[in-house]
Design brief:
Elements (H helix, E strand, L loop, with lengths): L1 H23 L37 H4 L11 E6 L3 E2 L2 E10 L5 E3 L4 E5 L9 E4 L8 E3 L4 E9 L16 E7 L7 E8 L2 H4 E4 L5
Parallel strand pairs: 6-11
Antiparallel strand pairs: 1-3, 2-3, 3-8, 4-7, 5-9, 8-11, 9-10
Length: 206
């Protein structure tokens, strides 16, 4: 009987020892974890673009944007290039446009221009803005005219032939009104435009 109690006590002590040993075990260290946070960039609306044919126009001021008079488009304008001065290898002319419609329309800005040959194919043209004058709102009643100053050089720039035409001669020009994309045609019978077709053009004025 005593022996049986001793065996039971021994088993109990061994069990407690095992439990105590388990309780003192420290958990194995876990390797550090790397957390990657991906941010979704805030979506912003793209800036509005301004279309104006072959060249971008500056944004119209509020007074112009609020004007309810329609723009002068290619179907309501006709044009002619009027001869001007010629001095020291420079040519100065005016592009005159007329409102051929039955209602008033407006022009604001520089617009575009592309020289062409007799077949209508493009010839070298580099239209640059010359703010002389700069943009202002031009209102044209039916039959009224607006003007755009044009200037170019007649002397080769050093990369062009010095004998014969400096560039292929032009016979016409496609004129794109400000803020429009379609052109109307005018006659251009002034020969070659040197410096790879570089033309300085003012804004339209009255």
């Amino acid at each position: 009987m005593v022996r049986r109690r001793l065996m039971v006590t021994s088993v109990a002590v061994m069990t407690l020892g095992a439990l105590s040993a388990c309780g003192n075990d420290k958990p194995a260290a876990q390797p550090p974890q790397t957390v990657t946070v991906t941010e979704t960039p805030t979506q912003t609306s793209p800036s509005p673009s301004v279309s104006s044919g072959s060249s971008s126009e500056p944004e119209r001021p509020p007074s112009v944007r609020n004007d309810q008079t329609p723009r002068c488009g290619p179907t309501t304008l006709s044009g002619v290039i009027e001869s001007g001065d010629a001095a020291a290898g420079n040519r100065y002319v005016k592009l005159a446009v007329t409102n051929t419609g039955s209602k008033a329309c407006t022009l604001y800005g520089y617009g575009g221009l592309q020289l062409t040959n007799a077949a209508g194919a493009p010839t070298p043209t580099k239209l640059t803005r010359q703010p002389d004058p700069g943009p202002s709102l031009v209102r044209l009643e039916p039959g009224q005219k607006a003007y755009k100053n044009l200037h170019w050089g007649a002397v080769p720039d050093g990369t062009e032939p010095v004998e014969g035409p400096c560039e292929p001669a032009s016979a016409g020009a496609k004129v794109i009104p400000p803020d429009e994309t379609e052109p109307f045609m005018v006659k251009f019978d002034f020969g070659s435009v040197c410096e790879q077709g570089k033309i300085d053009g003012s804004a339209y004025y009255k």
